[in-house]
Amino acid sequence: MTRTSKEERMRKLYEEVLNCRRCNLCDGRRNPVLGEGGMDAEVMFVGEAPGRREDETGRPFVGAAGRLLDSLLDHIGLRRENVYIGNVVKCRPPNNRRPRSEEIRVCAPHLEKQLEIIEPKILAPMGNSAIDYLMRRFGLKLASIGQVHGKKFEVEAPWGRVFLFPLYHPAAALYMKDLERVLVEDMEALGRLLARVGESKT
């Protein structure tokens, strides 16, 4: 798939999300948040749902958690344009509550279309909602985030082999400072995995 065709498909998907009425989250949103980044990104980060700042701007991870994510990316030599960043749920839940299982279920087809467009080699779910959904999606046994963070799981996707690489959500590190060190270590491991993936293509 060419970059131009990927961009066109993503534009159409945004229109679908903009007009989506599959759940009640659309009633309270200001802007849906599809995602952003490179169409040919080898790494795709998947968070939970937009927060207040994301709802205001229509962009993912632009609040305090987003600034931490940017610094983590910079730590391993990446920028937002080198990766793709999205969420399982595209509209902000009231008061930033965790999305409900039914909201995730009806919104997940939008994420599936994004995955098919980006075709990432590494899929990095951040936080419980994203980890639970993607582990189920690829037939993996569910486990706590404490057990799976920073570990790679090789799975088969429609576009080929993918490494699922769960991470703590950056927002968690804002409240539990010890997790920031863990996130740094996990991102360093992700960077090493990305380097190996790149070497396997040459």
Q: How is this structure best described in words?
A:
The chain has 202 residues and is an alpha/beta fold. It has a single domain (3-200), classed as Uracil-DNA Glycosylase, subunit E, CATH 3.40.470.10. 49% of the residues lie in helices and 13% in strands. It is built from nine helices and six strands. It has helices spanning 3-18, 25-28, 52-57, 64-75, 101-118, 128-137, 145-148, 170-175, 178-200, and strands at residues 35-37, 43-47, 84-87, 122-125, 153-157, 160-164. The chain has a six-stranded mixed β-sheet. Helix 1 (3-18) packs antiparallel against helix 5 (101-118). 39% of the residues are buried. The mean pLDDT is 95.
Largest sheet: 6 strands, mixed
Which bin fits the share of residues in helices? 40-55%
CATH topology term: Uracil-DNA Glycosylase, subunit E
User: What is the approximate shape?
Assistant: globular
N→C terminal distance:
20 Å
Tell me the CATH architecture: 3-Layer(aba) Sandwich
* The top level CATH class name: Alpha Beta
Question: What spatial order of strands do you see in the largest sheet?
Answer: 1-3-2-4-6-5
- Domain module count: 1
Briefly note the structural class of the backbone. alpha/beta
Mean pLDDT: 95
CATH superfamily, please? Uracil-DNA glycosylase-like domain
